[in-house]
Design goal:
- The complex is a heterodimer of chains A (114) and B (112).
- Chain A is built from no helices and 11 strands.
- Chain A is mainly beta and 114 residues long.
- In chain A, a hairpin with a 2-residue loop joins strand 5 and strand 6.
- Chain A starts with a strand and ends with a strand.
- Helix content of chain B is 0%, strand content 54%.
- In chain B, strands 2, 4, 5, 9, 10 and 11 form a 6-stranded mixed sheet that branches.
- In chain B, a hairpin with a 2-residue loop joins strand 6 and strand 7.
- Classes of the chains: A mainly beta (114), B mainly beta (112).
- At the A-B interface, strand 5 and strand 10 of A face strand 4, strand 5 and strand 9 of B.
């Protein structure tokens, strides 16, 4: 089954404790992206990657890092999480940057930072 | 970053009623997409629109690409309880701009 897999689904952590949210897709998509979803603000792009070793900032990159060493994986790293990073996070992929077929989204990671 | 204006923000309807929602932008888009997000899940693509004026159906769902290219509409006919969720529009920009811009969502609740 074609899918984007995120882990973990739920995470509660403390301020300052580094964490990684993993994302993997099995569709050989070039383009991958991370979004956060907050009430009333919709989906905001954090980082994206056009291909292996090519990443760039989205609209809200502060406090986050990403890497793209393999085509299928695109982990999101929070080096020193803060409470304002409490949110619902989605990883998404699409065939290429220019495709107009839309994204396939993961099931989400609900992160709480206390 | 830019976001699309989606309305209504939320709505309660009775089972069997028809539902209409829309999405507007100050920018022209070449592609409009409609997604549904079930509670606790990620958004799933419902309908994609690629041409101004285009009308596309997916079961009880019908979406239209506005003729001005600055808006899109989604209708759900004869709603059922499993239609509950958040509906998002997304636009992909004019030539040279491939980023997707998302709406803030319409939360639909269906009363049996």
């Amino acid at each position: 089954e074609a899918q984007v897999t995120q882990n973990p689904r739920y995470l509660i952590t403390v301020t300052g404790k580094k964490l990684t949210v993993t994302c993997s897709q099995n569709m050989n998509h070039e383009y991958m992206s991370w979004y956060r979803q907050d009430p009333g603000l919709g989906l905001r792009q954090i980082y994206y990657s056009m291909n292996v070793e090519v990443t760039d900032k989205g609209d809200v990159p502060e406090g986050y890092k990403v890497s793209r060493k393999e085509k299928r994986n695109f982990p999101l790293i929070l080096e020193s999480p803060s409470p304002n990073q409490t949110s619902l996070y989605f990883c998404a992929s699409r065939v290429t940057f220019t495709t107009n077929y839309g994204y396939t989204f993961g099931s989400g990671t609900r992160l709480t930072v206390v | 970053g830019q976001q699309l204006n989606q309305s209504p923000q939320s709505m309660f309807i009775q089972e069997g009623e028809d539902v209409s929602m829309n999405c507007t932008s100050s920018s022209i888009f070449n592609t409009w997409l409609w997604y549904k997000q079930d509670p606790g899940e990620g958004p799933v693509l419902l309908i994609a629109l690629y041409k101004a004026g285009e009308l596309t159906s997916n079961g009880r769902l019908t979406a239209q690409f506005g003729t001005t290219r600055k808006d899109s509409f989604l209708n759900i006919s004869a709603s059922i309880p499993s239609d509950v969720g958040i509906y998002f529009c997304a636009g992909q920009g004019p030539s040279g701009t491939y980023k997707y811009i998302f709406g803030t969502g319409t939360r639909l609740k269906v009363l049996a």
